[in-house]
From TrEMBL:
Gene Ontology MF term list: ABC-type ferric iron transporter activity; ATP binding; ATP hydrolysis activity
Protein family: Belongs to the ABC transporter superfamily.
Pfam families per record: ABC_tran, TOBE_2
Domain of life assignment: Bacteria
Official protein name in the record: Iron(III) transport system ATP-binding protein
Organism name: Enhydrobacter aerosaccus
Membrane-topology annotation of the record: Peripheral membrane protein
């Protein structure tokens, strides 16, 4: 059975829209699932319901096949009895203890034998790269090191499930990237099952075996990173993961997952669609700036545009284009701007990188 199973989870705070609104997904053992979404979409509340720190309003949560929360049956297992590890945004370490004492604490608390504790603490400190820091007072460490202590403390007793709530967001940019990549290695090396919450797309892609995109308390799509990026199920998912271009048009027809859309003066575009669009519908076509092929005439979706502005940014150039009265942004990697403003240009929008949604 799944290490974590969430079925139709609802959490309301007072009246109004629920903070979590009918969320369902599972986390198989050894997998890392990332919940990704903007601030306020219900990620932390979902995590806190799993931990038992919030009392759900409805639905069911099971950990390793055991139901830990089901309000309809008056069932609620306390946080202590859930065998969960948690790492938060703030560095939750005990300031009056050394690094070793911090990491040993959960084992002492669980009444493990002393020899056993020492070996496990040493092994876990090595794992998180703090092998040489065992006897340091925890307050002498940097933010990144304190977060490693917090991580070690929640890994040392090998909980069935590790919950991480934006653990890197208080670190500076360079450290965040470093610890992010290392976190992936540590979690995979230990075979931990994890539920990780973030608003950062790159973090989600690096860490997640699957990503669940949330908005307004609802889970919009749960899929491996490649699928979220290449087949966004929803216009919000497309936009949140970086498809900043939106072209408006009217659906002319649809064959399977390919829709043909009239963009007005720009002409017709073919686009992939996950929705049952039909002729006459108003549609939005979303696409990434980096998928615009400037100066190319492909087999399909060839357009004529005009360069309004080009912004050279060193390793890349961003172009603002006019496409039959609609705006289109294009991005080219490379150290030179190849196209210049006020010129007409042919461009191709590969159909598999154009995604159509009902407006
Ligand atoms: P996220 O972690 O995605 O930023 P949260 O789960 O923290 O989102 O919050 C989801 C929604 O629930 C927000 O509208 C937030 O204001 C509300 N909320 C969270 N905790 C409480 C609380 N203890 N009391 C009332 N409203 C809350
Ligand atoms: Mg949060």
């Amino acid at each position: 059975s799944a290490a974590l199973l969430i079925e139709d989870l609802v959490k309301k705070f007072g009246t109004g829209r629920p903070a979590v609104d009918g969320v369902s997904f599972d986390v198989p053992a050894g997998e890392i699932v990332v919940l990704l979404g903007p601030s306020g979409c219900g990620k932390t509340t979902t995590l806190r319901c799993v931990a038992g720190l919030e009392h759900p309003t409805g639905g069911r949560i099971s950990i390793a096949g055991r139901v830990v929360s089901e309000p309809e049956r008056g069932l609620l297992v306390s946080p202590r009895e859930r065998d969960i590890g948690m790492v938060f945004q703030s560095y939750a370490v005990w300031p009056h203890m050394t690094v070793r004492q911090n990491v040993a604490y959960p084992l002492k608390h669980r009444r493990k034998a002393n020899g056993d504790i020492n070996a496990k603490v040493r092994e876990t400190l090595e794992l998180v790269g703090l092998g040489d820091y065992a006897e340091r007072p925890v307050t002498s460490l940097s933010g990144g090191q304190m977060q490693r202590v917090a991580l070690a403390r929640s890994l040392v007793y090998r909980p069935q499930l590790l919950l991480l709530d934006e653990p890197l967001s208080n670190l500076d940019a360079k450290l965040r990237v470093h610890l992010r990549d290392e976190l992936r290695r540590i979690l995979k090396q230990t075979g931990m099952t994890g539920l990780y919450v973030t608003h950062d797309q790159t973090e989600a892609v690096v860490l997640g075996d699957r990503i669940g995109v949330m908005r307004n308390g609802k889970l919009l799509q749960m899929a491996p990173p490649g699928e979220i990026y290449n087949r966004p199920a929803d216009a919000f998912v497309a936009n949140f993961t970086g498809a900043s271009n939106v072209l408006l048009g009217k659906v002319l027809g649809r064959t399977g997952e390919t829709a043909t859309i009239d963009l007005g003066a720009a002409g017709r575009i073919e686009a992939w669609t996950p929705q049952p669009l039909s002729a006459g519908d108003t549609a939005r076509v979303a696409l990434r700036a980096e998928n615009v092929r400037l100066g190319e005439r492909g087999d399909r979706n060839v357009f004529s545009g005009r360069v309004l502005e080009c912004r050279y940014q060193g390793m890349q150039t961003v172009y603002d284009l006019d496409l039959g009265g609609q705006r289109l942004e294009a991005l080219e990697l490379g150290t030179a701007a190849r196209h210049h403003a006020n010129g007409d240009i042919a461009l191709t929008l590969p159909p598999e990188t154009c995604w159509a949604y009902r407006d």
